[in-house]
Amino acid sequence: MMKRKVNKSPSFFIINSMEKYLKVGKILKAQGLKGEVKVYSTTSFKDIRYKKGSHLFIKDKNGNYIDLVVNTFYSKGENLDVISFMDHDTIESIEPLLNHELFALKDDSILFDNEYFYDDLLNLTVFDEDNNELGVVSSIEEFPSQITLKVSKKDKHFFYVPFNDFFIKDVNLEDKKLIIHIIEGLIE
Fold first, then answer.
1. Is 41:22 a contact under the CB 8 Å cutoff?
2. CB neighbour class for 141 (10 Å; exposed up to 12, middle 13-18, buried from 19)
3. DSSP-based three-state secondary structure for 69
4. Which tens digits make up the pLDDT trace of 115-160?
């Protein structure tokens, strides 16, 4: 059985018709005096996103993206990381970056088959195997045991679907359609 994976980047911003930005974390505070920052990460691809020379972005007050080039990276736990950026080697130089969300350019090439970014799954229309419309994916929830899709129905109620091969039968991003297997009690 093939395991499905989802990137933890839940939102994106369209800068123009060609570029999409994924949120990958938030800069929390300075780490020491040499320009390092502590980051709360929301990406599943830390080794790629935070590799030396990688480009990350913050958004300024006018909505423009400011390019930051990663210099160093190390992890301090599951979601806490320490990053330094080229040309930002003092605490004074990183102060304007604090409390900003970090973004990366969306790059589908880092995904394997049956892997999806969170934002690709959001707003997909959900159908059962008989092609009956059930609702729309409104959020992705991470529980300790698995990733789960929250599906909102037209009557304002919702249900959860585990994101695994037993329940997820087809993901069609072009048609914005998700087909699920229904078991008793799943959508009630």
1. no
2. exposed
3. strand
4. 888 888 999 999 999 999 999 999 988 887 888 999 999 898 999 9
Q: What is the CATH number of the domain that holds 150?
A: 2.30.30.240
Report the C-alpha gap between 167 and 127 in whole angstroms: 11
Domain count, the chain: 2
| Maximum Cα–Cα distance across the chain | 60
- What residues contact residue 179 under an 8 Å CB cut-off, 6+ apart? 126, 127, 128, 129, 131, 168, 169, 170, 172
**Rounded to an integer, what distance in angstroms lies between the CA atom of residue 43 and that of residue 110?**
12
In a domain, 186, yes or no: no
And the tokens for 70? Answer: 């990663």
Asked if residue 109 and residue 126 are part of one domain, the reply reads no
Structure tokens at 182: 């229904």
Q: How far is CA 100 from CA 32, 127, 172, in A?
A: 18, 38, 33
b (16+ CB within 10 A) / e for 64-90: ebeebebbebeeeeeeebbbbbeebee
Query: Using alpha carbons only, how large is the chain's radius of gyration in Å?
Result: 19
Q: Is the pTM of this model over 0.70?
A: no
Q: Which domain holds residue 73?
A: 5-115
